[in-house]
Structures are given as structure tokens and as C-alpha cells.
Design brief:
Layout: H1 2-9, E1 17-18, H2 25-30, H3 41-62, H4 65-69, H5 72-114, H6 121-134, H7 139-151, H8 182-186, H9 190-211, H10 238-262, H11 264-290, E2 296-298, H12 305-310, E3 314-315, H13 319-325, H14 334-338, H15 347-358, E4 364-365, H16 369-379, E5 389-391, E6 402-403
Parallel strand pairs: 1-6, 3-4
Antiparallel strand pairs: 2-5
Helix pairs in contact: 3-5, 5-6, 5-7, 5-11, 6-10, 9-11, 10-11
Length: 414
């Protein structure tokens, strides 16, 4: 009864009205002190060296887990059952921190892809290629599509990833929402929703690379990041795509070879599970940056670069651990969308200047990241077929915001 009465009281007219930002990118950039755009190669290398040393230290510590807990002394001290519990608890600690450390390495590769790591292109490309290939990301191929994502973020027609589904895509009737059986359309059980969310967290990035899942819907079937002739790339970029493929092929050989020497179980324990965590963290972070009921999407002439850049949200992911291990990538993402070549270590200070200039157009959230993931996954279902300023609707067809009157398109659903 509570849900139905909530639906009856819902009115688009009562929602907070949103007016897109009026400023040019030049005006916004002028509000940021120029020193925050300076790239320091040595400083970037120091962060990379720190990450490599931390990863090596964690790996070394892990080599002591099985010998200690499977030894006679541990079994006598803890009992055999207690020693086994302690062994798996120690592996969980290793997986948690090694996953975070390697996600930081992936972030360094991401910086390189934007040219934010160094003034020298060769430095960016060599480090980016090595770090991303080691973590199963085709560096040059992904860099190309990721640049296009930044250039077109929040554009319904041109963005590369996390493009919202429309009412038409989901075959939702175009009639007043109180006349629609929303439970019939979105009536999944919480268990099934949780299963789909976990599947997204583990498989979304490989699915995007291989099958364009959650990518631009106008691309042909079988669009992927490994075909040099894909619509994603120009003829001039073909060799770069092939180089990325060679890197991934080398990783396949390396993992197979290591498995033949040390055993697949050992490779999975030391490397495979931490890599799954890397995939989880950057899928979660990027999803939360770009998916929230208060973030707009645009069609046609209402989109521009700076409006798209502001359609992101800074997230407090894992507190100090997120800031230290993930190089602030989650906490200060909005400024990164405005100025992708700005080094991550200038993000905190530069964000304060950006926030002072664009005011309410800056979005941030301190909600627990796992709670935010669940809420966004349930509340961000689709956008309308019509209109140039759009907001996500939830499983009852309700939005959290609406376009200001001059941008609003009245439909049967309102």
C-alpha cells in the first residue's frame, strides 16, 4: 500500500528543476590555477614505483601463508581447523590489499592513456602499455574508445559507454506511469537483482571490450576492441590495435606458461583473484561516476563538452584506502572529466576551485559505495524517448529530477 500511495502522489511538476550550466570550457579553465595543469614525470614515476614495491611486498608476504598455516606449529597452536580458517583469512587479506594495489597500477595506466602521467608521449605509451597489458586491458584500443567517451560524455547519440536505455529499448508503454504494471516489467526479486549486479561487477569490462555491452547502441553487431577494422577505429589506428592485441596474446602465453610451471591454482591465488578485484573496482568506480538519478544526459544541441563533464559525481570510495591505493581516482573524478590531462595528484586542490566556480553543478556523494551501487543499480533504469535534457527513471517510472520548463517535453507519462 505504501508503494502504491507513493506512486499516486508522484508528480513531475514537484521534482527539482534542472537548468544546464551556461559557462564555456574556457571560462571554467580560467578559474583553475595554471600550476594544477603541470605534469611532473618524476612525481608520476614515484607513485608507480610505490605501487610496484607494495605489490611485490604483498606478493612476498603471501608466499609465507601456506607454509606457515599448514605447518605443525600453527596446527598445534590453532588446532587444524583453526589453522585452516587462519590460512584462508590470510589469503583474503592478501586478495583485498593486492586487488587495491593493482587497481592503483591500472589507474597509472589510465593516466598514461590521457597523457596526464608525463609530458613525453613515449613515456606515457610505454608505461601505459605495460601496466594495462599486465592487467588485461588492451591499452591502445581502450585508450581510443575512452578518449571518445570523454569527448562525448553524457551524449545519448555519441557517448561510448554507460549509455542509458530508453523507454523504447525496454518496450515500456508510452502512457501515464500509474497505468503501467511496473512490477510486470521490473519485478525481479532482490536475489536476482543481486546476482545481476555481481555479474556486472565481474564481467562488465570484458563484456564491453568483447561485445560492446553497455556501449553505443548504434554500433553494428559484434563491435569489439580487438578487431583492427572495427568501427571504433580509423585506418590510421589499425597498427595500434594490433599492438594491443599482441600484448594481450603475450599475457595469455605468460599465464598459461606460469600455470604449467606453478599450477593453475597458484596462479589464480596470487594473480587471478587480485585481477578479478581490479576489474570489480574500476567497473564499480566508473559505473558510480556516471550513473546516478541526479545526473543529466543530453540529446542534440543541448549537449556540449562541459555539460557532459559536469554530468559525473565524485564518490567517497573506501575512505583513506580509496584515496591512497586508488590515487584519488574515485574521490576527484569530476575535475578529470573537465581536464583529462590534469595529473591525479592535483585533483583535490583543483576540485575546490572547480566547485567554487560551477557551484550546484558540481556533484559529490559520501554515501557508502556499496549502498550507492545498489541504489543506482535499482534507480537508474531508463530515460525517456523524447527530450534533450534527460534524467534516469526508476522501476516505478519515477525520476529524481526534471528539466527546467524551457527544456521540458511534455509526454503522456507526465
Amino acid at each position: 500500500m505504501g508503494a502504491s500511495s507513493q506512486t499516486e502522489k508522484y508528480s513531475e511538476d514537484n521534482l527539482p528543476a534542472y537548468t544546464p550550466m551556461p559557462w564555456s570550457l574556457k571560462e571554467i579553465r580560467a578559474a583553475i590555477p595554471p600550476e594544477f595543469f603541470v605534469r611532473d614525470t618524476l612525481r608520476g614515476l614515484s607513485y608507480l614505483a610505490r605501487d610496484i614495491l607494495l605489490a611485490a611486498f604483498a606478493w612476498t608476504c603471501a608466499t609465507y601463508i601456506d607454509p606457515y598455516f599448514q605447518g605443525a606449529a600453527a596446527k598445534e597452536l590453532l588446532t587444524p581447523v583453526g589453522a585452516e580458517v587462519g590460512r584462508w583469512a590470510a589469503w583474503c587479506v592478501y586478495w583485498w590489499f593486492q586487488g587495491l594495489i593493482l587497481t592503483g597500477v591500472w589507474v597509472i595506466g589510465h593516466e598514461c592513456g590521457h597523457g596526464a602521467f608525463s609530458d613525453h608521449k613515449i613515456v606515457n605509451d610505454v608505461i601505459g602499455f605495460i601496466t594495462h597489458t599486465f592487467l588485461w586491458t588492451p591499452y591502445f584500443s581502450w585508450r581510443i574508445s575512452h578518449h571518445r567517451h570523454h569527448s562525448n560524455h553524457a551524449s545519448m547519440e555519441r557517448d561510448e559507454v554507460y549509455v542509458p536505455k530508453t523507454r523504447e529499448d525496454l518496450n515500456i508503454p508510452d502512457k501515464p506511469h500509474e497505468e503501467i504494471d511496473w512490477d510486470e516489467i521490473f519485478g525481479d526479486t532482490p536475489i536476482y537483482t543481486l546476482y545481476m549486479l555481481i555479474r556486472q561487477q565481474l564481467l562488465a569490462f570484458p563484456a564491453y571490450l568483447l561485445f560492446n555491452v553497455s556501449g553505443q547502441k548504434t554500433y553494428p553487431k559484434w563491435t569489439n576492441h580487438f578487431d583492427p577494422n572495427s568501427i571504433l577505429f580509423t585506418k590510421e589506428q589499425r597498427n595500434a590495435v594490433i599492438m594491443s592485441n599482441i600484448g594481450i596474446a603475450a599475457m595469455v602465453w605468460g599465464v598459461v606458461h606460469a600455470s604449467s610451471i606453478y599450477g593453475a591454482a597458484e596462479v589464480i591465488k596470487y594473480y587471478g583473484i587480485p585481477w578479478l578485484e581490479v576489474s570489480h573496482w574500476f567497473i564499480m568506480i566508473t559505473y558510480l561516476h556516471h550513473t546516478d538519478p541526479v545526473l543529466p544526459h543530453y540529446r542534440g544541441k543541448e549537449w556540449n563538452f562541459q555539460r557532459g563533464a559536469a554530468a559525473t559525481v565524485d564518490r567517497d570510495v573506501l575512505g583513506w584506502q580509496g584515496r591512497f591505493f586508488l590515487h584519488d581516482v574515485a574521490h576527484f573524478h569530476v575535475i578529470h572529466h573537465f581536464f583529462p590531462k590534469m595529473p591525479f595528484y592535483h585533483g583535490p586542490e583543483a576540485t575546490q576551485h572547480l566547485k567554487a566556480f560551477i557551484g550546484d553543478h558540481y556533484q559529490s556523494s559520501t554515501t557508502n559505495c556499496f549502498k550507492a551501487l545498489w541504489e543506482s543499480y535499482n534507480r537508474c533504469q531508463f530515460v525517456e524517448n523524447e527530450g534533450d535534457v534527460l534524467f534516469y527513471r526508476d522501476k516505478k517510472g519515477m525520476a529524481a529530477r526534471r528539466p527546467a520548463d524551457q527544456y521540458r517535453v511534455k509526454t503522456k507519462t507526465q
